[in-house]
Amino acid sequence: MQIPAQLNPTERILMGPGPSMVPARILQALGSPTLGHLDPQYIGYMDETCAMLREVFQTKNLLTFPVSGTGMAGMETIASNLIEHGDEAIVCINGVFGLRMRDMIERCGATVHAVEIPWGESFTDAQIATAVAAHPQSKLLTIVHAETSTGALQSLPGISKIVHDAGMLFVVDAVTSLAGHELKVDEWKIDAIFSGTQKCLSCPPGLSPVSFSPAALEAMSARKTKVQSWYLDVSMLRNYYTGSGGRAYHHTAPVNMIYALREALRIVLEEGLEARIERHRIKHLELRAGLEALGLTYIPQNSLHSLNCVRVPEGIDEAAVRRKLLADYSIEIGAGLGVFAGKAWRIGLMGHTATTRNIQTLLAALKDCLAT
Amino acid sequence: MQIPAQLNPTERILMGPGPSMVPARILQALGSPTLGHLDPQYIGYMDETCAMLREVFQTKNLLTFPVSGTGMAGMETIASNLIEHGDEAIVCINGVFGLRMRDMIERCGATVHAVEIPWGESFTDAQIATAVAAHPQSKLLTIVHAETSTGALQSLPGISKIVHDAGMLFVVDAVTSLAGHELKVDEWKIDAIFSGTQKCLSCPPGLSPVSFSPAALEAMSARKTKVQSWYLDVSMLRNYYTGSGGRAYHHTAPVNMIYALREALRIVLEEGLEARIERHRIKHLELRAGLEALGLTYIPQNSLHSLNCVRVPEGIDEAAVRRKLLADYSIEIGAGLGVFAGKAWRIGLMGHTATTRNIQTLLAALKDCLAT
Description:
The structure is a homodimer. By secondary structure, chain A is α/β, with parallel strands linked by helices. The first copy, chain A, has two domains: 13-18 and 273-371, Aspartate Aminotransferase, domain 1 (Alpha-Beta Complex), CATH 3.90.1150.10; 24-269, Type I PLP-dependent aspartate aminotransferase-like (Major domain) (Aspartate Aminotransferase, domain 2, 3-Layer(aba) Sandwich), CATH 3.40.640. Helices cover 41% and strands 15% of the residues of chain A. The first copy, chain A, contains twelve helices and 13 strands. In chain A, a hairpin with an 8-residue loop joins strand 12 and strand 13. The first copy, chain A, starts with 12 loop residues before the first strand and ends with a helix. At the A-B interface, helix 1, helix 2, helix 3, helix 4 and helix 9 of A face helix 1, helix 2, helix 3, helix 4 and helix 9 of B.
């Protein structure tokens, strides 16, 4: 066959639902010489990465590590390790990612009690209290902190109390919120949480940071059956990531991706977690003012700062606008997903992307595209 | 917390069981600007990557793509997509990776008929014929082409005929052989095969190339139940990788790792697949002569070229030798695994690592370490 030409990716402004833009420092770290996955030097880098992840998750959970797959692998790690055949679980659904969690938990053999509200809305404490009361035998409740399909932010502390008062585990999808929104795993008593590297951490996609509370570990220890996934079985992974039982080889870790995540976390801590979260808030307000000045309206009442989901105006060919943005300005924004397919744009403002320069460039470009 | 120092990994000579050494060109590709996973430019790179994978696997199988996880994720993709509760499977075991396949297939709910021979040996056609005759109702038979734990190479064509004559699917673990040993997926009628990027492809770890034959696709279509892994469900992944049903979003692909694999495959095709396989053979002979001159003996009768598994001489502290190689020479070799723990060294000669310079450096260093 003819050998394809040398790689030469365009330097896009990435304002979709992820990946976000990756700082040069992280790309350089990614391209550093590969070490063996059992090399003491690499183990040191990995331990530092896990320590920084704890800081960013605001947790002391020992079992905090990056799963060797993209965000959905983190979701599946939690589902497959906490759920056994015959369990019951409450799944809160207000977008694509709640639906996925239901699918995954059902594949693990549990009966799912779905609590559904319209896409774009966020759950009230009262809705959760009703669901928990209706299904008191459930092992856990899952909810999405930042629904990437709708741009809705979910408040968590009140729900956490309701869930724990009922004796259930509290499971949170934080793919689009980690390091971009306030998120306090220990203070909010979250038992299992997962995220992705390609959102507010501004690292390339490829890893899914997860964290498990002591109560989650107890639930895993009490399992009567093996985890149905070997690749994601935490009872084996924990030996490698926490050093319990020696650094037993499980699978070959994605060494260079860990380099990148480590550098991404260093950048987060250099900026300061609080300052970074505040930057996401301020930049969201700037973008929001500009989008509303263009006549665009937000879909969710309680919008994320990291992802802005707006309605496509009547009579506009949404795909043509995205194509023109990409072709003429090399700017990527996201299409609507699920019920919002064809009806919404999703504009990401995550991590390194969240700057005034990118916001003003997008607003100018969007104004041009909407006028033609 | 104190922010860890800047990343500065040592440039090792990687002669363990993987990862192998990564050429600078691949590291540069890895660190290229991240594109969105639905960007037409990225989709083009991905399609080229899959086309080159077909070339290297020597197959026309449309469904040939890199799973978004390390090698074991590829093994699990095959197990979880081909196996349903109640199935029966024959698993050939002569090392760690046969054992793993048994574990994975059992977690998928199948009854496993294990065919075990001593570690380090390879299977004869007669052994397979006996097993197949004893369990004719089995859906598939799995075997390891290159046992990374023992260094044994397995001949496949004769076995393939026996398996197909019995109406079973033929499943092969090619983690340590792809692009380093002769391997003809179509000619040898392999129905499902997986590999890793960090071996003879000399790419960092993080992806697992897989390929499925039309017969394997039929078996998947005939499933009565959902694949128990959502993340690895080929019925959804194929839409993204082959374009059937549009390029539906499934999960965020590990974009930069695909860049690296694409570059690794370009390098393989530039060298020429046959020339590369011949280089592995020649360099193996050179290493073997040197190791035997040092008094070391090989464990497997039918040794891989890509991985050389030798006995640790009596009275030698094997871990001390590896530590000294790493500390004084920055050379990594592998320890024994499983029944060979403490008794063997595994010396990789894969991809970019397989050069006379590395071989002679190792031999000189090993001579020094064995003398002290």
